[in-house]
Amino acid sequence: MNRRALLLSACAAALAVAGCATPGTSKQAGPGEIEAWSGRLSLRIDSQPAQTFSALFELRGAPQAGELTLTSPIGNTLAQLHWAPGEALLRNGTETRRYDSVDALIEAATGAAIPVAALFGWLAGREDRVPGWRPDLSQIGAGKLQATRESPGPRADLRIVFEPA
Q1: How many Cβ atoms are within 10 Å of 32's Cβ, its own excluded?
Q2: Could you tell me the CATH number of the domain that includes residue 141?
């Protein structure tokens, strides 16, 4: 079983108890501060068969350098993603894998090419445009973000719940 399938399987099992999770917090960065968000995220990819991914998350940093930790609702670390100029790492248990870019890293961890730079903007309430993606920021003040990738296929639906600042 490949790493992504293993991670997706672990997340699918965690989905059964995901209703117990509570949203985390967000922190808008001031001068010299690091942006940070935590809460729940889910991703559905309309492939054959459909893939679903759900986890608690902690996101810190910026598009250029940051860290994303994915955990199950019971607190088990599913994966740690770290990126900085010249490095993109996926830590999964005792294994560390290197990738060419943060975008390749995110795709390996989640199964979908999620635009990391735009994600930081969307979480901050900016409607950053990315070809093929349609963000819905209408509930960002209530701590909810939805973004849909319509092209290239397969369609992907990203949903994030966090506590607004």
Answers
A1: 5
A2: 2.50.20.10
